[in-house]
Amino acid sequence: MTKPKKAQDIPAPQNERVQRHVNGAIFSGELNYDAKEFTVTKIKNIPAQSVIKHRQLQAIRNYLTKTKGSQHSYTITINDQIPLLLNTTEVEQLVNELEAIDELLH
Predict the structure, then answer these.
(1) What percent of the chain has pLDDT over 70?
(2) Which of 45, 59, 64, 77 has the lowest CB atom count within 10 Å?
(3) Can you tell me the distance from the alpha carbon of 104 to that of 76, in angstroms, rounded to the nearest whole number?
(4) What is the DSSP string of 72-97?
(5) Residue pLDDT, tens place only, 57-89
(6) Under 8 Å between Cβ of 68 and 95
(7) Where are the alpha helices (DSSP H) in 34-85?
(8) Distance (Å) of CA 41 to CA 8, 10, 19, 73, 99
């Protein structure tokens, strides 16, 4: 009787892309290429758990890009409980990170 292989011992199919970790100044998390989504695991240095679909990511980026000149700060709510204020510089960083994530998901 042969011993069953562990998941890490089984090579991934050649045509299947694996997840990739992204570590940004504002958002950190895992890209899932197959599902076209980004799982946020940290916002700044605060642990979080939220899945953002590719189209949602694009909508957030477009909104921030269109409105960044009209506001001085934005508030993100982490885990539906912790409000986190982002200043103008942090909003710019977030837009850049969202653009980079968007490019990686294409």
Answers:
(1) 82
(2) 45
(3) 23
(4) SEEEEEETTTEEEEEEHHHHHHHHHH
(5) 999 999 998 887 777 788 988 888 899 999 888
(6) yes
(7) 54-67
(8) 22, 26, 14, 22, 18
